[in-house]
Amino acid sequence: MTGDLDLAEGAARVARPDEAVSLDELQLAARNHGLPLEALRYDVTPVGLHYLLVHYDIPDVDPDAWRLAVGGAVSRPVTLDLDDVRARPATTARVTIECAGNGRARLLPRPVSQPWLTEAVGTAEWTGTPLAPLLDELGVGDDAVAVGFRGADHGVERGVEQDYERGLSLDDARTGDLLLAYEMNGQPLPPQHGAPLRLVAPGWYGMAHVKWLTHIEVLTEPFAGFQNDTAYRLTQAEGDAGEPVTRMRPRALMSPPGFPDFMTRTRVVDVGDHELRGRAWSGGGPVRRVEVSADDGRTWADAELAPATSRWAWQAWRYRWRADTPGRTTLCCRATDESGEVQPVEQPWNRQGMANNLVQRIPVLVRQR
Predict the structure, then answer these.
(1) How far apart are CA 101 and CA 206, in angstroms?
(2) Can you give the pLDDT at residue 209?
(3) Which string of b and e fits 73-93 if b means at least 16 CB within 10 Å?
(4) What share of the chain is helix, strand, coil (3-state, %, to 5)?
(5) What CATH number did the domain enclosing 53 receive?
(6) 314 touches 359 (CB < 8 A)
(7) Are residues 343 and 227 in the same domain?
């Protein structure tokens, strides 16, 4: 973090009741993209369909010149090039990653930021070397409590010039199956997804998966960077310190049935039987139940939930829906994880629009042919 610049408001802002989405927000929406919901059909999301969020710019990183410095409270600090990382023991993990701001644009009042609806998610197979053995080899000090991760992306956020940095507790860094990943779906990382190396932190919202990784520092004090202590907080009012955003809350998404209206995305289906399909996930453990409602959340019925294919990946579900009555209705789905947490039907509002797992609602027009 290199200083303050008077370029933006100092705190997260909430839109006025009559305030439309701004050109700045549209510019963010054009740079970043969500998963087209019909792509929920894929167990592993194709790279071009996986959600994308770039905070600042995609850095211009030369893989041959790139280096990763690992140091701080360790006995043997090291600097690695990409060949060094690739020479280490490798593993591949299927991991679902969801943006912490997913669903923000549907909150009322609306937090002003990247205007996500419900599609900021994707599941990829990430290949890399586990972080924990590397830390153990370097000799982590007895007084170490946290690990900081810095990326090459540089910019200004709420007036603060900074490299993108996040921190985790030492326990989370050592026990959470974290990967230093250099491949996505069997191919070298593309530039927009963090090439040549990124962190993959299974179970955590996307802000923890630092891209374009350049530094790892073992710390003797809790990490106190902007992206932990100011951004990504669950706050209710300006000046409220709030609670940190951490692991993904349970969520189910449905691949919309029928076909869409171009502008409104309202679905059109015929009277009769329809198989509804989707995916469900949670950073707090496997999903144990998915329910579907055909009346905007007034009544619910259990869907058939497939077993987990990976500890950290979404699960498929399906439900047979009989559309008997022509007219308009709203389909919903919700997940419950192994801790018993259930997706809410009413919005869990906070000032930054973080960790909002409000149930998905899909407007549908049932027609009689």
Answers:
(1) 9
(2) 98
(3) bbeeeeebebeebbeeebeeb
(4) 15, 40, 50
(5) 3.90.420.10
(6) no
(7) no
